[in-house]
Design a protein that fits this description.
This protein is α/β, with parallel strands linked by helices. The protein is built from 10 helices and 11 strands. The strands form 3 sheets. A 6-stranded parallel β-sheet has the order 1-11-8-7-5-6. The structure holds NADP nicotinamide-adenine-dinucleotide phosphate (NAP).
């Protein structure tokens, strides 16, 4: 086995970071905590998912969030609104759940149909119930180092990095993709851990050069094989957030087959960041429930 950040031995393949297994452990831990709560006469944490329209990937994601929340003993509600719904109706729905005492987490599934504003929807969620961590207040808390609910995918990236045992302090970390959902918050979280962070985006002049310097690499763009395997610095730890469907199969943004021969640790797609993100949503819902009782 290679230490994180160390060059792999000749012919050694990277260790695959088992996001699926980590997510299962997290769900099992939550199920035990919820069972203890309910045995003590307290209510189970509550999650509502709001799905607008019939985007097939969104339907799959929401079904999974519903299934996994129920499996661990959460109270789970699901709202499905037609694609033709007005912004006011979406805001009314959010407001109703802001004022529902046994709901701790409100998940507005993105993307919304084009005539609706994700920004208005996310901003309408009570920040204390914003289990996706995308309300401007929670984003601001992250950027100013204050406590608050944090976005699930970036936290998952950090947990998967930590699972390798890597000490992030002083590491050269490169994040590819600068969205508010993944790239920017993960860069902030790496910075918090004293990594030296480079954030790459469409304007980056020489992506290959930046990637080749990364001891820690997080890629979140949504373009299959954008990052070529032979760009990877030997021994790097690679987190591939991308989800792309190619010839009916899910692939990430990193050319996995080549990268696995150079990295020390790498996440697979599927089975890496994806399952962890759903588990983190459940963790945030549990944490929101506990925080609302204080
Ligand atoms: P997004 O909002 O489309 O953002 C993509 C980012 O990549 C943008 O900052 C974009 O820059 C940048 N970009 C585009 N082309 C680039 C290039 N050639 N070089 C460098 N940067 C480039 O997407 P997202 O929501 O962050 O998601 C990214 C990927 O992660 C998608 O595949 C998505 O499905 C996946 N994802 C997975 C999970 C999970 O749980 N595993 C969760 C969320 C997202 P501009 O903004 O300047 O165009």
């Amino acid at each position: 086995m290679n230490g994180p950040g160390q060059a792999p031995e000749v012919d050694a393949l990277a260790e695959i970071i088992d996001g699926k297994g980590r997510a299962r452990e997290m769900r099992e831990g939550l199920a035990r905590q919820i069972a203890l709560r309910t045995a003590a006469g307290k209510r189970a944490p509550g999650l509502v998912t709001i799905l607008v329209g019939e985007d097939p990937p969104s339907q799959i994601y929401v079904a999974r969030k519903q299934r996994e929340s129920k499996e661990i003993g959460m109270h789970s509600e699901s709202v499905e609104l037609p694609a033709s719904v007005s912004m006011d109706e979406v805001l009314d729905t959010i407001d109703r759940y802001n004022n529902t005492p046994d709901i701790d987490g409100i998940l507005l599934q993105l993307p919304l149909p084009e005539h609706l504003s994700a920004e208005r929807g996310l901003s309408a969620i009570d920040p204390a119930k914003d289990v996706d961590g995308l309300h401007p207040l929670n984003q601001g808390s992250l950027f100013t180092g204050r406590p608050g609910l944090r976005p699930c995918t970036p936290v998952s990236c950090m947990l998967l990095l930590d699972s390798t045992g890597i000490d992030l302090r002083g590491k050269h970390a490169v994040v590819v993709g600068s969205s508010a959902l993944v790239g920017k918050p993960v860069a902030m979280m790496l910075l918090e851990r004293f990594a030296t962070v480079v954030l790459c985006h469409v304007g980056t002049a020489d992506l290959r050069e930046e990637v080749s310097r990364a001891e820690v690499l997080v890629v979140a763009v949504g373009k299959p094989k954008l990052v070529k395997g032979d760009w990877i610095k030997p021994g790097a730890v690679v987190i591939d957030v991308g989800i792309n469907r190619v010839d009916g199969k899910l692939v990430g943004d990193v050319e996995f087959e080549v990268a696995v021969e150079r990295a020390s640790y790498i996440t697979p797609v599927p089975g890496g960041v994806g399952p962890m993100t759903v588990a983190m949503l459940l963790q945030n819902t549990y944490d929101a429930c506990v925080a609302r009782e204080l």
